[in-house]
């Protein structure tokens, strides 16, 4: 006698299987019920803790089909106890193990000074090498229009410029407005110096000091914090060593650097 299954549910109504993904630290997922998107910072029995790019933490249960990974429904599971390979770069991008650096593009990203360049390299260096983008630094932006003209940006050689203290009415703002090439993009952050784009908590301070007008900003900061005034290079090394990923930087800087990378690498 032929046996029939008791399950009379039509195939198209049965829930489709979804992949199980280990909740490794650094994995960026979205909880669709709340729209909260963040990186995994810990996974414990039955729960996972996510941190968004602003440093906010949320704890969610490890439920089947409970998260979105790059737009696809997945089930997060506790990772194995073995050593895990990092899944994200310092900028939060997907890591590409073994990827070779791309031959440098004709396009460039200019930043104001050495400290700016070192900070960009530390957080976005892996991304920049894969994309073939070279970062160079200027000594101030007073001659920016002529520098852009000398570079002669074009469809295959775009130029992106990151400027400190780019706020309406500032000297930097007026200089940036003079750059009119459609193949050059000048953006900036509101901070007087790139030091201030590092979150105070990451450096171990409550806030960046207010420095009176007429006082060199770096000198004033070192004096207010009790750091050696004559050694601003040493102070910068202390600040840079406190930066481990994009989570240690202010959103106003993160967005501008990502914008420049997208602009320089966009198809001609």
From TrEMBL:
Residues 20-79, 108-265 form the DUF3097 domain. Residues 1-20 are annotated as: Disordered. InterPro entries: DUF3097_C (IPR021447), DUF3097_N (IPR053883). This is DUF3097 domain-containing protein. It comes from Streptomyces cellulosae. The lineage of its organism: Bacteria, Bacillati, Actinomycetota, Actinomycetes, Kitasatosporales.
């Amino acid at each position: 006698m032929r046996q029939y299954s008791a399950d009379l549910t039509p195939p198209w109504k049965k829930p489709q299987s979804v992949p199980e993904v280990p909740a490794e630290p650094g994995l960026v997922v979205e909880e669709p019920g709340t729209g909260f998107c963040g990186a995994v910072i810990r996974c414990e029995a039955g729960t996972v803790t996510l941190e968004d790019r602003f440093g906010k933490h949320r704890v969610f249960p490890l439920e089947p089909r409970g998260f979105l990974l790059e737009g696809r429904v997945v089930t997060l599971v506790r990772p194995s106890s073995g050593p895990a390979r990092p899944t994200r770069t310092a900028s939060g991008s997907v890591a590409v193990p073994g990827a070779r650096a791309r031959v440098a593009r004709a396009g460039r990203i200019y930043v104001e000074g050495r400290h700016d360049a070192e900070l960009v390299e530390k957080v976005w260096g892996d991304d920049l090498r894969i994309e073939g983008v070279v970062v160079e630094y200027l000594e101030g932006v007073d001659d920016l229009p002529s520098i852009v003209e000398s570079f002669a940006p074009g469809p295959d050689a775009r130029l992106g410029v990151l400027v400190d203290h780019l706020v309406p009415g500032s000297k930097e703002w007026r200089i940036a407005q003079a750059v009119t090439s459609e193949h050059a993009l000048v953006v900036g952050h509101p901070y007087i110096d790139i030091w201030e784009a590092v979150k105070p908590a990451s450096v171990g301070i409550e806030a960046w000091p207010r420095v009176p007008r007429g006082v060199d900003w770096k000198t004033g900061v070192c004096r207010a914090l009790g750091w050696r005034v004559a050694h601003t290079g040493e102070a910068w090394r202390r600040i840079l060593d406190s930066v481990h990923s994009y989570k240690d930087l202010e959103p106003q800087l993160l967005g501008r650097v990502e914008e420049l990378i997208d602009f320089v690498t966009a198809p001609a």
